[in-house]
Amino acid sequence: MPLKWEGDKAKKTFAKTARGMVMQSALLYKKNVKAMLNQKGGRTESGLLETIRTNSASGKPGFKRREPGSGKRAQRIGSFASQPGEPPRRQTGRLIGSIEHEMIGLEPKARVGTNLEYARALEFGFLPNRLKPRPYMRPALQQSEGAIRKIFGRKIKGRRF
To answer: How many CA atoms does the CB half-sphere of 125 hold within 13 Å?
Structure first.
């Protein structure tokens, strides 16, 4: 029986599988970054706000942002800020909403991050303003490491070359 070379087919299968593994890893990391940023705190003690419909003295309907249960009104942004060393608490939701992932070309490479200017200052600190680091990307990567290793530890199934 003659030996049949299927090297190009094997390369394509491997590249497609590797790209899928990288995509899974990027999505897992992105999910963990968002979970790190979605902790309690922010504008209220509990970290939660609800919109309450109200009527003003003139009888016009209005809305107020209050803390559920206690009815305390939302404080100014930063009133329940995170402590240095812990992930930043949600204030406006802008940072958590900006976390994105992208695949780079056709290669098995991905990027997870944000385009907000202040994100780097939160992660690493900013000396001129005496802002101490409030890391969220690095701890999320450490948290994701075991699962990412499992993703890349899987065998390529169903192919015999």
So the answer is: 10
CB 133 within 8 A of CB 120: no
* Total number of domains constituting the chain: 2
In a domain, 88, yes or no: yes
Residue 63 falls within a domain, yes or no?
yes
Distance of CA 159 to the CA centre of its chain: 35
- Tens-place pLDDT, residues 95-115: 999 999 999 988 889 999 999
Residues 48 and 123 in one domain: no
pLDDT 10s digits, 19-58: 999 999 999 999 999 998 887 655 555 555 555 666 666 6
Count how many residues are written for the chain.
161
Is residue 160 in some structural domain? no
Helix (H, G, I), strand (E, B) or coil at 90: coil
